[in-house]
Amino acid sequence: MIFTTFALANPNINKNPQGHFGAFLEDLPMEKILIIGAAGQLGSELTRSLAYQFGGEQVIATDLRDSARFEFDYCRFEVLDAMNKEALHDLVKEENVTQIYHLAAVLSATGERNPKFAWHLNMESLLFVLELAKELKLDKIYWPSSIAVFGPNTPKINTPQYCVKEPNTVYGISKQAGERWCEYYFQKYNVDVRSLRYPGLIGYKSLPGGGTTDYAVDIYHKALAGEKFTCFLRADSYLPMMYMPDAIKATLDLMNATRESVKIRSSYNLSGMSFSPKEIFESIKKHIPGFEIEFKPDFRQAIADSWPNSIDDSCASKDWGWKPDYDLDAMTVDILKNLPSYFKF
Ligand SMILES: NC(=O)c1ccc[n+]([C@@H]2O[C@H](COP(=O)([O-])OP(=O)(O)OC[C@H]3O[C@@H](n4cnc5c(N)ncnc54)[C@H](O)[C@@H]3O)[C@@H](O)[C@H]2O)c1
């Protein structure tokens, strides 16, 4: 088993930066963690942090993409289609899995190209996981929701936890329905399912998977490559965003919180920062003065226009102590420093 030294996002958990797991693991109950869709933008970083927390031998990373197995040299990897109910059932049962992180989904922009498929995958796979959790009495389930649950009639500034939600993308509709199913399985069947409404996630370790906020990852690649960036959103299009270390920290904090402190069983509002394409461009220009941008909004502008500008996450702060670490400039400094070691420019 190979463990590389890596920084765990959650400072409360990262008690042992040398990568020695023994003493730390003694404090935790024996859990077996299954991640579905582990090779994506979120999964590739979250899986590593889970391996750090629980030990690589306690973690099974799965994805549809076989080529991803080389990325998981620190834990077991299996090819698994989230739509294959029997294979999922067998793996969970045979391996005595206690927790599932279900990350596989069709995202917002890709979903609009094939709405029926997006609905089918996003809904059916969640229902498989929830049914399995009920049947096998699994310990905990994690399933991410999104700011896409909000819609054009939602208050845009400091969007509250509870408000009108009329999403107009298939992705948003599937996340909203998914939230209702999560709460239903908690209320009716006592399934300990936990969820966060992530804003747009920005990381440098992997490429994004077809969302409306992908531009905020791509822009750093173009800046470092010395290329002009063409932005598919308007210069003033404000959206809630979050740097990946904060998203990982929030996920682990929520999953490590006591059952009683998790009061919301649909999904928690979560906020990191909000910025427009013009502002992220200016943040990068402080370090790369010759960087240039042009704006050519496409179909993703309409999706962005239907989402909030900023999010009120006071319930997450109150219930389990959520607080982000990064603002836009701190994120820019960190990405410009670290991105070149992951991608060649
Ligand atoms: N990235 C964001 O900005 C963001 C924001 C809000 C919510 N989320 C949610 O977080 C989760 C993960 O998002 P991401 O950005 O990592 O997505 P991604 O597209 O980067 O990764 C999804 C992974 O799922 C895998 N997958 C697809 N279909 C599968 C199937 N049938 N069976 C098994 N694996 C399959 C893909 O190969 C991919 O590796 C999703 O539920 C998404 O809705 C992401």
Compile the SSE list and pairings.
Blueprint: H1 22-26, E1 33-36, H2 43-54, E2 59-63, E3 76-79, H3 85-94, E4 99-102, H4 108-113, H5 115-136, E5 140-142, E6 145-146, H6 170-189, E7 193-194, E8 196-198, E9 200-202, H7 215-225, E10 229-231, E11 239-243, H8 244-256, E12 268-269, E13 273-275, H9 277-285, E14 293-295, H10 300-305, H11 314-320, H12 328-338
Parallel strand pairs: 1-2, 1-4, 2-3, 4-5, 5-7, 6-8, 8-12, 9-11, 10-14
Antiparallel strand pairs: 11-13
Helix pairs in contact: 2-8, 3-5, 5-6, 7-9
The structure holds nicotinamide-adenine-dinucleotide.
| Reported CATH architecture | 3-Layer(aba) Sandwich
Give the N-terminus to C-terminus distance in angstroms: 31 Å
How many helices? The count is 12
CATH superfamily: NAD(P)-binding Rossmann-like Domain
Q: Spell the H/E element sequence.
A: HEHEEHEHHEEHEEEHEEHEEHEHHH
Q: What's the overall average pLDDT, rounded?
A: 92
Radius of gyration: 19 Å
Present as ligands are:
nicotinamide-adenine-dinucleotide
How many structural domains? 1
- Residue windows where pLDDT falls under 50 for at least 5 positions: 1-24
| CATH fold topology | Rossmann fold
Rough outline: globular
Helix content: 25-40%
Structural class: alpha/beta
- The strand order across the widest sheet is 3-2-1-4-5-7
Q: Beta-strand level of the residues, as a percent range?
A: 5-15%
Q: Any idea of the CATH class?
A: Alpha Beta
Main beta-sheet strand count, sense and barrel state: 6 strands, parallel
Q: Using DSSP, what is the number of strands?
A: 14
